From TrEMBL:
InterPro entries: DUF2489. Keywords: Coiled coil. Residues 23-50 form a coiled coil. This is DUF2489 domain-containing protein.
Length: 155
């Protein structure tokens, strides 16, 4: 083998080693970026959950002290449970059955602008059904609300 061939092979090996080292550096940077992105995603999820937990606790306090109607609280709490990060793993319908039962009975009623557009007779009919459902579930929902004043995610 000639000296020229040895030099070419040596240069090629040096170039290959340099490119391999550079590729390794890029892979390391990519791994660090992925870890940072995952950490940021986890922090955002935790912050969102903390806001939801605070809302659940606030609504529960308001329901217990009768600053919030039982039906309105049940509607809001059922939605908040659905938005928690562990909603796929934890069956909040089973954990808080009265809140969800009341929510199921009244969630189809018109609210806000839709309610204003209803005829007076229909609005009164919905109010009567809502009050009837509230009376049926009030004690159970309030008991669950008291339990929720110290709510936290199960981990």
């Amino acid at each position: 083998m000639s000296i020229l061939a040895i030099i070419i092979i040596t240069v090629a090996l040096l170039i290959l080693a340099g490119l391999s080292f550079y590729a390794g550096e890029l892979l390391m940077q990519l791994k660090q970026q992925k870890q940072q992105i995952e950490q940021q995603r986890e922090q955002k999820k935790q912050a969102r959950d903390n806001n939801l937990i605070e809302s659940i606790q606030t609504i529960s306090h308001a329901m217990e002290s009768e600053q919030c109607e039982v039906s309105e609280g049940a509607l809001r709490l059922a939605v908040l449970f659905d938005h928690l990060s562990d909603a796929q793993q934890v069956d909040y319908v089973k954990k808080y059955p009265a809140i969800h039962a009341l929510n199921d009975k009244i969630k189809h009623f018109a609210i806000l602008e839709e309610r204003k557009k209803l005829a007076k007779k229909e609005r009164m009919r919905q109010d009567f059904q809502r009050m009837k459902a509230e009376a049926e579930f009030k004690d159970l929902v309030i008991a669950e609300a008291i339990e929720l004043k110290t709510f936290s995610l199960s981990k």
